[in-house]
Design a protein that fits this description.
Blueprint lengths: L9 E5 L4 H12 L3 E6 L2 H13 L3 E6 L5 H15 L4 E4 L14 H26 L5 E6 L12 H21 L4 E8 L5 H7 L5 H9 L10 H10 L12 E4 L16
Parallel strand pairs: 1-2, 1-4, 2-3, 4-5, 5-6, 6-7
């Protein structure tokens, strides 16, 4: 594997066994980082690990439920024990629960908030002692276009992603003195297992996706590797001087006032 932009760096990436997290893990390894692949699904984690090692990359899969502080703490310790340091923290783990607000139980609400927001608190809390040892360190939190606008039948997801954006700003402000930069990547419609879960809750998933893409000027769903490139940007000195901000990667979704962009072509 050739020397890349992340050579000599170690990255901890949550939700790295599929979707955007998998895309980030593969790209980071390609760019020379040692990658801790964090996730609950062991078969998917081992698959990602094999894909990285086949190309000569360095990685370890660490099973972890990011809603459990002890497991997050242990995963950080194992990462540092394995690779000797930690410079990059990517908080990507996320879930969606499609239903109307009045249909949620307290447990369902808490589950989404725990995975999407509290996990970031746990990860940063336990990574901080290691991140601060570096002259420069990077935290990237994965939000969503739902950090900015609403979305039907996903009120808890939307609330959680708004919180992710504000948490990212707070981390950037409070920890700049330690050389830590924190930014938020906010993807639009991305073809991931989570998107498919959302679509499969509709009567006609493919028709629903096509209708949603009519809202997108570029008329495409992003791939996980597309979004991973923006996460990489915030995880190295390509983005020097940038902290406390968000990068919207949405093929133009939030730029469009029209609900059907085919009408303006």
């Amino acid at each position: 594997m050739t020397k890349g932009r992340l050579a000599g760096q170690t990255a901890w990436i949550s939700g790295a066994t599929k979707g955007i997290g998998e895309g980030a893990a593969l790209l980071f390894a390609q760019e020379g980082a040692a990658v801790a692949v964090i996730g609950r699904n062991e078969s998917d984690g081992r698959r990602v690990l094999r894909a990285i090692k086949r190309k000569g990359g360095k990685a370890v899969f660490i099973p972890c439920d990011v809603t459990r502080e002890a497991e997050v703490s242990a995963s950080i310790k194992q990462t540092v024990s394995t690779f000797g340091s930690l410079q990059i923290l990517v908080n990507n783990a996320g879930i969606v629960d499609v239903r109307m607000l009045h249909d949620y139980t307290a447990e369902q609400w808490d589950r989404v908030m725990d995975v999407n927001v509290k996990s970031m608190f746990f990860a940063f809390k336990h990574a901080f002692p290691h991140l601060r040892k570096n002259r420069r360190a990077y935290v990237v939190n994965v939000g969503s276009i739902s950090s900015f606008v609403g979305q039907s039948s996903t009120p808890v997801y939307t609330a959680s992603k708004g919180a992710v954006l504000q948490l990212s700003r707070s981390i950037a402000l409070d920890y700049a003195r330690y050389g830590i930069r924190c930014n938020c990547v906010c993807p639009g419609i991305t073809d991931t297992p989570m998107l498919r879960q959302h679509l499969n809750a509709t009567s006609d998933p493919e028709a629903h996706l096509a209708a949603r893409l009519n809202r997108v000027p570029l008329k495409v769903a992003l791939t996980p590797s597309d979004v991973a490139k923006s996460i990489l940007y915030f995880s190295c000195e390509d983005s020097v001087g940038i902290t406390g901000t968000s990068l919207i990667v949405d093929a133009g979704y939030l730029a469009a006032a029209e609900w059907d962009c085919s009408a303006i072509r």
